[in-house]
Amino acid sequence: METSDFYGTEKVSRILLKIAPPVMLAQLIQALYNIVDSFFVGKYSETGLTALSIIYPVQLLMIALGVGTGVGINTDMAYYLGIGKKKKAEEVAGTGTPLGLILWIIFAAVCYVTLPAYAGMSTDSPEVIRDVVAYGRIVCLFSIGLFTEGIWSKILQAEGDMRTPMIAQIAGAVVNIILDPLLIFGMLGMPEMGISGAAVATVSGQIVAALIVMKKAWYRPPRRSCYSGYIKRIYQLGIPNIIMQSAYTLYILGLNLILAGFSDQAVTALGLYYKWQTFFFIPLGALQTCIVPVISYNYAAKDIKRCRLVLKDSLIMGECLMFLGTLCFEFLPGQMLAVFSGDSEVIAIGTNGFHYIGISFIFMVTSLIFPVFFQAIGYAVKSSVLTIVRTVLFFVPLGYIFSRFGLQYFWLTFPVTELLTSVIGVGFYRNFLKREQTI
Length: 439
Hints:
Blueprint: H1 6-9, H2 12-44, H3 46-82, H4 86-122, H5 126-141, H6 144-158, H7 163-185, H8 195-217, H9 227-260, H10 264-280, H11 282-300, H12 304-331, H13 333-338, H14 344-376, H15 380-403, H16 407-410, H17 413-438
Helix pairs in contact: 2-3, 2-7, 2-11, 3-4, 3-5, 3-6, 3-9, 3-11, 4-5, 4-6, 4-9, 5-8, 6-8, 7-8, 9-10, 9-14, 9-15, 10-14, 11-12, 11-14, 12-14, 14-15, 14-17, 15-17
Pfam families: MatE (PF01554)
GO biological process, one term: monoatomic ion transport
Organism: [Ruminococcus] lactaris ATCC 29176
């Protein structure tokens, strides 16, 4: 494990420019393979495409648990590295593999038993239920790659190695993309597996990615007596990330239900926004990932001035990057919507909505960066509060209130939510600075 104080001495902008691009590229490849996956399944079967939509929240939950645990390990390792306790950091890393395996076993068992009931709650179609169970059981039973890769990648990132996780995720995505048509349609002598083939392609890619990061990220597990303390701290630091990703799923569901009261086209327009969001949020998501170990390292080293500098630089970079998204949503909404839909009503509704959503990007940087900042310094409660307030107390209730005035006003939900969350985040940050000044 490297003991270099790169995070503590290098120019902040140079750190972010070095470690963020690999994460962005990996996330871009992941976004592309998700779209390709849906493309091939949709070509094979409409019921299969519906099944993918139903199983998507389950996959998001798996990712939330795996990545959230990895973020907790990442943050704790960065803390110990920041105070020069290399052995402690290695013990935290060694806790990661057993945790990943336990999460996999529990999730696989629960999903295998409950998937038929979950599918029945989501649809009345026997064909769709069959596809949900077929696809879902494969991706859950063989999710060992997802859980272990998520944790091992975060271990490497805590050490400053962004390149290996990037290579792993790209390799996994490429394997998935190549296997998708071969296994779904039965090409080149492969069996025609339909939607089950898509599931096999998905877990194959995840396992390939896990194997690539395993060599560098596996550490000997610590003594059994150490586990309770490390696990408690890992989840104190990782719970905000788990809540953040889980809440994301719930608020999308809530907004969909509100828009369903207007028309299917309104729901479709919101769905198309989330397709484009995947691309525009890649830079911001990479910044969120990269600043956690940097801030945690410097906070542990009691360098509050440098923590403030990391936050300032990440906010400036985030605003510059997201401003490009604002320009696209303000000036090219029709063209963006037409990529996926030729329905004139969808395009009309979406064009109106995209104008409001584009404005929200300006405030979204602060509303999403502040929770990560507090997570990195160990203020898990403040981080969780900001996430819950944004997704539970603001998004869905405000969406419902604005929708009472008409569909056009519903879209105000986005800028108003991001602005209010940012105001609360600034308040929390000012209180943090006052507290540090008095210590």
